[in-house]
Amino acid sequence: MAVKINQHAYPFVEQVKNLPVYLTGIGGTEYQGAVKRDEGYCWHQILFCASGSGILRFDDITIEIMENCFIFLPAFYPHEYIPDDMKWDIRWVVFDGYACKQILSEFGMDKPMVVKSNNSDSMQKLYNKMFVALKTDKVYGNYTCAGLVYQYILELHRLASDSTAKSKADKSDILMPVLNYIEENFRNDFPIAVLAEISGVSHQYLCRVFNRTMNIRPNEYITCRKLQEAKHLLAETTLSVYEICIQSGFSDASYFSTVFKRYEGITPAEYRKKTKAY
Q1: Is the CATH number 3.30.2270.10 carried by domain 7-162?
Q2: What gap in Å lies between CA 150 and CA 155, rounded to an integer?
Q3: What is the mean predicted confidence (pLDDT) over 235-249?
Q4: CATH code for the domain defined by 167-276
């Protein structure tokens, strides 16, 4: 069970305001009152319900908040949260930074969300580390917290993914054999139908799951794996470009150069020259 916290700390933001992500405040209260923000809050927030219960409202949606729930609230997003009784133990982390919008968007965290967790230990450890860093290290504590708050966001994203555990397990069961097969056979030509057969699902469903999970289509992923091998060989060996083309799984040197330039912005020979300069 989480220890009750009735204190807060605010870093010296001027020291870290040019970082991509940084902590702007951390704290908690055993007696969280009702909060209504018609224009949202000026910073992004992650709240944790250590005990008690309440409700969260946004966009005409009402969500019940129970013990071990995390609440994510983007900056300037109208919301309100209300306790069910006087004792509602809430601890909060607020953060900002020029890269926050991009990072949160990448994680699909554009709107408020509630995440129920059966195991919040990792989040609690990060939370405690941030508190300790601010209290004990006046010189570098802010920088330490900047790294920790990024981990905190990342861990919440992981928990949100885990909240659909069955879906995640299903995706893993489908994709891991496919990814392993690609790793062992990317140098050889094979149809996507082979991957579908390995995964045990239809071609269309495999492509949909692959694209949503890996953010890339299977054919593109195979091409990128070939290019990754080619870049390694260009940088680490003296093989000719044609030999590297073949060893990377490309059957035509002209096509290899065209694809390489499309993805990397330079030719294989230019890439080799660039890497040898370092």
Answers
A1: no
A2: 9
A3: 95
A4: 1.10.10.60
